[in-house]
Design a protein that fits this description.
Length: 308
């Protein structure tokens, strides 16, 4: 199909075919949707750009137009998704030189996004407000996320087989496709496949809860699930406990924040959360890390003062 492309053909048409040939069926749907969105923007911003029109200047102008309405990181993603197709076009002789070389990535100044999380006292009040009876419910789901820091889709995919009560651990090896309802999906990245240590109380509680349940079926899924419905349930508990309202993802932030304040290393927190690198953890929890560093400075100063 790509062999029929000529230098005078439109760039967005080549990109559309390139996606079908190289990406369709090879990547997750959520990633595929991003490529298709890039295709939409390409057609909108450069509807008349031909393959032979691609050079460093025209490509930089394309990036600049996109950057006018997007943050720098989003523009970077846009650039990387286009670059793969462009490099193939260079290899095929449709473009003489690499137009992406030395591209400057611009973008709008990102809005300050302060993550929402609960402190230890607030989390204790939330857990006390949950209705943790003898049957699996969304309240148990909320507790499990709060105590493990799992992503929403990871927690939905948990089956009885994932619990290792003897070694007090929980295996994360898949996610649940709650958006398209196709069942189990791979994890977000390789680092997301992990074992999470869980406390003895959770072990005792879930060992009773999952007795008799099918080993390979999700313990929380009975029908279609909506993220908003679980967040609404969590919001009611937050209001009932008279604490700040957070989302399910906010419980993941809460879990990480409590670990960091407790002195757990960034490396250990990154592994527990399933981050692809410590850099992700550092960027996400920069304000907490800075706060901890300020406390460390106070400790250092007090220690040095005691030497006089």
């Amino acid at each position: 199909m790509l062999n029929n492309i000529k230098e005078t053909d439109l760039f967005y048409e080549y990109y559309s075919q390139w996606i079908k040939v190289y990406k369709s069926g090879a990547i997750r749907k959520v990633t595929m949707d991003k490529y298709l969105l890039t295709q939409t923007w390409l057609e909108r911003l450069a509807p008349e750009m031909r393959m032979c029109d691609l050079n460093r200047l025209s490509y930089q102008q394309l990036l600049n137009c996109y950057a006018e309405t997007h943050e720098r990181q989003t523009t970077m993603d846009f650039h990387h998704q286009l670059k793969g197709a462009i490099m193939d076009a260079v290899d095929e002789g449709l473009i003489e030189r690499d137009p992406t070389r030395k591209a400057i990535i611009k973008g709008k100044t990102p809005r300050h996004k302060k993550i929402k999380y609960l402190n230890q006292f607030e989390l204790h009040k939330l857990i006390s407000h949950l209705n943790l009876n003898t049957e699996i419910s969304w309240d148990w789901f909320i507790l499990l996320v709060a105590k493990t820091g799992m992503r929403f889709s990871e927690a939905l995919a948990i089956t009885p087989k994932d619990f290792d009560f003897q070694h007090q651990s929980l295996s994360i090896s898949k996610t649940w496709d709650y958006k398209s309802c196709t069942g189990f999906l791979p994890t977000k990245n390789r680092s997301s496949v992990r074992k999470i240590q869980i406390d003895w109380q959770l072990i005792v509680q879930f060992s009773e809860l999952i007795k008799g349940l099918p080993e390979d079926e999700p313990i929380f899924i009975k029908s279609r699930v909506f993220n908003s419905s679980i967040n609404d349930s969590l919001e009611r508990h937050c209001k009932g406990a008279n604490i700040p309202i957070v989302s399910i993802h906010g419980l993941r932030h809460t879990h990480a924040s409590l670990l960091l304040f407790a002195g757990v290393s960034i490396a250990s927190v990154a592994r527990r959360l399933g981050h692809s690198s410590m850099t992700t953890t550092q960027k996400t929890y920069l304000h907490i890390i800075n706060e901890l560093e300020n406390k460390d400075i106070d400790i250092v100063m007090r220690s040095l003062s005691s030497l006089s």
